[in-house]
Amino acid sequence: MAETKKLTKQELTKTWFTWVSWGQICYNWERLMGLGFCHTMTTAIEKLYGDDEEKKRDALVRHMAYYNTENTWGALVPGIVCSLEEARANGEDIDPDAISNIKTALMGPIAGIGDTVTQSLVKVILLGIGIDMALAGNALGPVLFILGFSAYALIVSYICFFQGYKYGKNSVVQILSGGLVKNITESLGVIGMIVLGALVAKNIGISSPLEFTFGQMSVNVQGILDSIMPKMLPMALFLITYQLLKKGKKPMQVMLYLMAAAVVLSLLGILA
Amino acid sequence: MLGYAIVIGLLCWLVSSAFPMWLRWSCYFGAPLVAGLVCGVMFGNISYGLQVGATIQMAYIGLLAVGGSLPNEMAIAGYLGVAMTMIAGLDASTGLAVATPLGLLGVLCQSAKMSLNPIWVHKADEYAAQGNIRGIKIMNLFASQIFPFITYFIPAFLCVYLGGAYFESFMNAIPPQITSILQLIGRMMPALGLAMLMQVLNKKTTIPFLIFGFVMAAYLGMDTTSIALVGCGLAILHFFYMKKESE
Predict the structure, then answer these.
(1) Closest Cα in chain B, distance from residue A188 (Å)
(2) B103 shares its domain with B208
(3) Taking burial as the number of CB atoms within 10 A of a residue's CB, which of A194, B25, B49, B204 is the most buried?
(4) pLDDT value at B66 more than 60
(5) pLDDT value at position A177?
(6) Are B129 and B10 contained in the same domain?
């Protein structure tokens, strides 16, 4: 019996860092992150199959397959794959096809969670703060955004990768069970919604320049609207746009509607 | 102009392709905002840069890249869009009218890169079959940068280097009615991004929080950081209540 091969902490850290840095660098329509995934696995493959040319080649070819997920939460998968390859290299009965199947099975659901949390929650909240500071003339806005978002990517992917390695293929069951992820996502959605409400008021900068003059008295339309509810026009535009999307209009179509509306409303002097 | 053109070209290329992913997330999705600071420093007018960057960024805040593609290429829209806006000395709210068309053209740069990169993947297939790990790494890290350099660096460089001098007089020749239409489009466009975001986030149980956020911003005039902090507190409460319910 050969001695057991174990990936060291250093090798695992290198694998994680390769994934979170270069997993998507050769993004392409044919395999998306396939080459990046293979590059990620090279450290582990060299260690585990370095003494067996044929197994090494098989493993490299196997990990060149089509692969696409979200990078941050998706770090879970190379973690799991490392633990499976390690077990396989030590003679456990793990079919190579099973490893590929796990990759394929996980990439979709993880992208679903990852895209939502990374792009529609963390990104929006941090950007909202950054924009706010930049508009106030504070150069720290963009800097804090870069630092915050990069720290998020590094920390979350590090945790996901090592959790994946620790629990192997059971990790997903572990993480997805008990509705914990659902509860966390929905709670993060609370922050997302509250910031969204704030952004509607802050980011949609439309107002009405209309003014009516009756003899001595002039009436400012925006003033009346403000006295009913501040930021009424931005909220109305947001709700109309949302309804259009909800009815199944494509974002590109809605963009054209908005442009057409802008031409008419601007020329008539109703909106500015 | 040569120096500016090189910096903008490099940024478009690095942010769209070559930076490590953990850094690209922020520099790509926050491209206009970051570009505002970079160009502000470069052109020696930081407050103008921040204004332009933040204003353009608003329109893109809700955009989501699902399955790897966006309707607008953020690196080009951001770095090139902000630079051209500042070169022409345009009002921040007109900036979006410059950035969006550039971003649409940028989608072509992205498609070209995505369609051509499989060449290196096939080369890497051969190296994998030979067990050549070094070859795989070279394909992934270096070969992958050849097409992005051509499709991002060169167009962005030429746009600033050759177009920069004429862009100001071109934009100045545009009649004021057109400019105010472009500005109104710029002010309306964030509604689309935010509505797209609403589609992703919308859950019956979290709609009340949309109202809270709106009131805090519109009536109380609170800044986004403090609103997000209140959101954190409410999110923790929400988590506890949901946990209790499921028990």
Answers:
(1) 6
(2) no
(3) A194
(4) no
(5) 58
(6) yes
What is the average pLDDT score of chain A? Answer: 89
B82, B36 Cβ separation under 8 angstroms:
yes
The more confident residue out of A253 and A197 is A197
**For position B187, what pLDDT does the model report?**
85
pLDDT higher for A244 or A30?
A244
Q: Please name the residues in contact with B133: beta carbons below 8 A apart, sequence gap of 6 or more.
A: A42, A45, A46, A60, B127
Residue B195 belongs to a domain: no
Residue span of the structural domain in which B224 resides: 203-247
Question: How many residue pairs bridge chain A and chain B with CB atoms within 8 Å of each other?
Answer: 371
| B223 and B143 share one domain | no
B117 shares a domain with B25: yes
B133: nearest CA partner in chain A: A42
Q: What is the ipTM of this complex?
A: 0.86
Distance (Å, rounded) from C-alpha B29 to C-alpha A72? Answer: 15
Q: What is the mean pLDDT of chain B?
A: 89
Out of A57, A240, A262, closest to residue B181 by CB: A262
List, as ranges, residues 17-56 from A with C-beta within 8 Å of B. Answer: 20-32, 34-36, 38-39, 42, 45-46, 53, 56
Instruction: Inform me whether the pLDDT recorded for A191 exceeds 80.
Output: yes
For chain A, the three-class secondary structure string (H helix, E strand, C coil) is: CCCCCCCCHHHHHHHHHHHHHHCCCCCCCCCECHHHHHHHHHHHHHHHHCCCHHHHHHHHHHCCCCECCCCCHHHHHHHHHHHHHHHHHCCCCCCHHHHHHHHHHHHHHHHHHHHHHHHHHHHHHHHHHHHHHHHCCCCHHHHHHHHHHHHHHHHHHHHHHHHHHHHCCHHHHHHHHHHHHHHHHHHHHHHHHHHHHHHHHHHCCCCCCCEEEECCEEEEHHHHHHHHCCCHHHHHHHHHHHHHHHCCCCHHHHHHHHHHHHHHHHHCCCCC
Least confident interval from A6-20, A136-150, A251-265 = A251-265
Q: Is the pLDDT of residue B208 over 70?
A: yes
Domain match, B112 and B208 both:
no
Question: Crossing angle for the helix pair A140-167 and B31-43, nearest 10 degrees?
Answer: 140
Would B243 be classed as within a structural domain?
A: yes
B224 and B181, same structural domain? Answer: no
Cβ of A258 and B224 within 8 Å? no
- Tell me, yes or no, whether B216 and B176 share the same domain: no
Mark yes or no for CB contact B131/A150 under 8 Å.
Answer: no
Task: Give the count of domains, chain B.
Answer: 2
Residues B222 and B147 placed together within one structural domain of the fold: no
